[in-house]
């Protein structure tokens, strides 16, 4: 199916949004955004250098230190969040053009996924009236008046990944803004379109100058954001390797950070679970964003006597997945986001073969697609959990089926990983699901599929990250607790200015 590429639905791709206005970059360097399904240039954006990052940080610093934003009552900031939610809902059609072309996600699912974006801003707007930004607490001596006050952490650098950029930007930006922080949004070179939409919305709703600043940068300039002492906190979603680098840099100056990192998530299939139903769920998950999701269930752990049945069921379903142009309504899985990403996945397919795993289906480029970064959904069987394909994040539609001696062994295998982001227990018994879930070392555990829920909270154990995003827990990293002890109770339970 041939679909003509339209122009990108953004207004100022050659500029950055800094200090409440569109500004020219410090150089003429640009980044070409390549459409994943055609390998053709979609649009180009300005590439930020260290000087541009410094300019954005300066604007955010002034806005925090001298501007009105952190001094507004949370209820007033919530009004802006609601306005952002309304504006974001109206940009759905534009994001349906951007996200599939940048990363290969199926266009048909984009509107449903994007409902969570205005939902994130509305959620934190609602929290403005419910979260205790000021709490009266008794003093240890019993004398005077004690308070705990939640103060904004300060200037935040939000580093956004390419796989689900609008969704993840919302769950970083909304709590940061409610807390009273100012933000520099750093978009990925592969998928900067969503960040430009955010900038246009910030301008549209009239956010005070410097509260939200947006630019696109590659690794060197991005590191300038992390090393700048004027940035109080970094929130990052991406690889564990980069997360370690960020944490190391911030340790030098005790900078704050939230890190949502890699995963090698386990699906533990108990003996009462129907294999066909489990295979259906796992196939759908493997195809979502072509498996380029940190929370993907990529290790399927099943009793040894059911291993072959599970492997055959997945291989059969993978063989029926239609791979192609993400704008074709009949397609079930689009391309990978880049040539580099496809080469990475193909490299791991070869590693799996070399390690002696059974390639039951996939691993090849579809024969009828000569352009675009397509690859077949892939399933390996007889995988040793100590092998590289079972231990390292592939970030593509590749699943490993691993045999366990029994339920106890399955739990041991599931926990035998440096990661701990997500997991699932496949069973029809909610009590058994709960029991096994409590024993799995993962930040989220669902039943019968990927049940990650940012409305409750999302984040990982072990090398899958530090901190949580979404829910009340997602607000806390943007606040610092301040203890205030007074001689007597003030006349106002909160300050007249409504400081958070």
TrEMBL record:
Catalytic residues as annotated in Swiss-Prot or TrEMBL: 260
Keywords: Oxidoreductase
Molecular function terms from GO: oxidoreductase activity, acting on the aldehyde or oxo group of donors, NAD or NADP as acceptor
UniProt superkingdom: Bacteria
Domain Aldehyde dehydrogenase: 22-484
One Pfam family matching this protein: Aldedh
InterPro entries, alphabetized: Ald_DH/histidinol_DH, Ald_DH_C, Ald_DH_CS_GLU, Ald_DH_N, Aldehyde_DH_dom
CDD domains the UniProt entry points to: ALDH_AldA-Rv0768 (cd07139)
Gene3D superfamilies linked: Aldehyde Dehydrogenase, Chain A, domain 1, Aldehyde Dehydrogenase, Chain A, domain 2
Transmembrane helix keyword on record: no
Stated family: Belongs to the aldehyde dehydrogenase family.
Protein's recorded name: Acyl-CoA reductase-like NAD-dependent aldehyde dehydrogenase
Protein species of origin: Amycolatopsis echigonensis
Taxonomic placement: Bacteria, Bacillati, Actinomycetota, Actinomycetes, Pseudonocardiales
């Amino acid at each position: 199916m041939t679909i003509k590429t339209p122009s990108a639905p953004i207004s100022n791709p050659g500029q950055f949004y800094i200090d409440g206005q569109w500004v020219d970059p410090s150089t003429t360097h640009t980044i070409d955004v390549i459409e994943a399904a055609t390998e053709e240039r979609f649009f180009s954006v300005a590439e930020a250098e260290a000087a541009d990052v410094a300019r954005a940080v300066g604007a955010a610093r002034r806005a925090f230190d001298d501007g009105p934003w952190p001094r507004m009552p949370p209820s007033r900031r919530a009004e802006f969040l609601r306005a952002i939610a309304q504006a974001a809902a109206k940009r759905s059609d534009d994001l349906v053009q951007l996200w599939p072309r940048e990363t290969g996600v199926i266009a048909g699912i984009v509107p449903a996924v994007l409902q969570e974006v205005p939902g994130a801003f509305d959620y934190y707007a609602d929290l403005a009236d419910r979260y205790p930004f000021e709490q009266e607490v008794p003093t240890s001596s019993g004398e005077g008046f004690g308070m705990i006050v939640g103060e904004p952490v300060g200037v935040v650098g939000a580093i956004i990944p390419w796989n689900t950029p609008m969704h993840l930007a919302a769950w970083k930006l909304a709590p940061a803004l409610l807390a009273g922080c100012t933000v520099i949004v750093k978009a990925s070179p592969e998928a900067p379109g969503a960040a430009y939409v955010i900038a246009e919305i910030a301008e549209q709703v009239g956010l005070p100058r410097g509260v939200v600043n947006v630019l696109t940068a590659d690794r060197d300039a991005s590191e300038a954001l992390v090393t700048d002492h004027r940035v109080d906190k970094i929130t990052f979603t991406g690889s564990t390797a980069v997360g370690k680098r960020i944490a190391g840099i911030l340790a030098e100056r005790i900078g704050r950070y939230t890190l949502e990192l890699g995963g090698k998530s386990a699906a533990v299939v108990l003996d009462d679970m129907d294999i066909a139903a489990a295979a259906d769920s796992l196939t759908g998950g493997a195809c979502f964003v072509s498996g380029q999701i940190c929370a993907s269930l990529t290790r399927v752990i099943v009793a040894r006597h059911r291993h072959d049945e599970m492997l055959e069921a997945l291989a059969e379903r993978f063989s029926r997945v239609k791979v192609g142009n993400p704008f074709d309504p009949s397609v079930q899985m689009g391309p990978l986001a880049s040539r580099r990403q496809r080469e990475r996945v193909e490299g791991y397919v070869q590693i799996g073969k070399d390690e002696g795993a059974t390639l039951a289906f996939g691993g090849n480029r579809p024969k009828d697609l000569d352009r675009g970064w397509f690859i077949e959904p892939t399933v390996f069987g007889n995988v040793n959990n100590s092998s590289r394909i079972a231990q390292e994040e592939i970030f593509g539609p590749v699943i490993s089926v691993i045999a366990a001696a029994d339920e106890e062994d399955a739990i041991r295998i599931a926990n035998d990983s440096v990661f701990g982001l997500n997991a699932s227990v496949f069973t029809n018994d909610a009590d058994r699901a709960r029991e096994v879930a409590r024993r799995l070392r993962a930040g989220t555990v669902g039943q019968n599929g990927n049940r990650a829920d940012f409305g409750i909270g999302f984040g990982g154990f072990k090398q899958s990250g530090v901190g949580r995003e979404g829910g009340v827990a997602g607000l806390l990293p943007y606040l610092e607790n301040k203890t205030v002890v007074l001689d007597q109770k003030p006349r106002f339970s909160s300050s007249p200015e409504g400081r958070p």
